[in-house]
Amino acid sequence: MDFRIEGLASDGSGYSCNVEIAIAGFERAVEDVDAVVRHLRERSDVDQSRLAIGGVSRGGILSIAYAGMRPNVFHGAINFNGGWLGRGCLNHEIVNPIIFERGAPAGISTLWLYGSYDQYYRIGHCRGNFERFLAASGQGKFIVAPMGHALLFKPALWKNHLDQYLDGLGHS
Questions:
Q1: Is residue 44 part of a domain?
Q2: Which of 149, 79, 69, 146 is nearest to 109 (CA)?
Q3: In this structure, what CATH number is given to the domain that contains residue 98?
Q4: Distance CA 163, CA 159 (A)
Q5: With helix as H, strand as E and coil as C, how does the chain read?
């Protein structure tokens, strides 16, 4: 098994806390999204002017970063409780900000939705990632809800924010 695919530890015990392995796993995920985007671009039934990207946890950070790494593809990016490494890895303080910063060049508004009681990402760390993203010229709104990592499953806590965000993109 190639553990670099997801940035897994070589013993298969979970995600590697090693910065190089984690970033290599992220880069591999970018390749996967590239394949999906190529497919979407080939479809005549997809309105390219209305594409938005979103994800949860690793998908959330990937959505923000990918939008900046491939500008002019997406018109919006939505991040639910995003992060590549959780607080169980000391290097999350290095890896997550580096990856989020890659999203800044997108030049689009982004929406960051976080649970204040997330078991993987402390809210202070998440706010710090957002501030670093903004300092790198990123654009967005940061929303905190009284929830944990399963925020996605409580739409009453974020639906109005998402509706407003999509309305602002002209996607209503």
A1: no
A2: 79
A3: 3.40.50.1820
A4: 6
A5: CCCCCCCECCCCCCECCCHHHHHHHHHHHHHHHHHHHHHHHHCCCCCHHHCEEEEECHHHHHHHHHHHHCCCCCCEEEEECCCCCCCCCCCHHHHHHHHHHCCHHHCCEEEEEEECCCCCCCHHHHHHHHHHHHHCCCEEEEEEECCCCCHHHCHHHCHHHHHHHHHHHCCC
In a domain, 16, yes or no: no
Does residue 45 sit within a domain? no
Q: Tell whether 108 is covered by a domain.
A: yes
Instruction: Report how far residue 10's alpha carbon sits from residue 21's, in angstroms, rounded to the nearest whole number.
Output: 10
Cβ atoms of 53 and 86 within 8 Å: the answer is no
If one counts the domains in the chain, the total is 1
Give the domain range for residue 145: 50-169
Q: What is the pLDDT of residue 6?
A: 65
CA distance 109 to 161: 13
Per-residue pLDDT 10s for the chain (172 aa) are 444 466 665 666 567 899 999 999 999 999 999 999 999 999 999 999 999 999 999 999 999 999 999 999 999 999 999 999 999 999 999 999 999 999 999 999 999 999 999 999 999 999 999 999 999 999 999 999 999 999 999 999 999 999 999 999 986 5
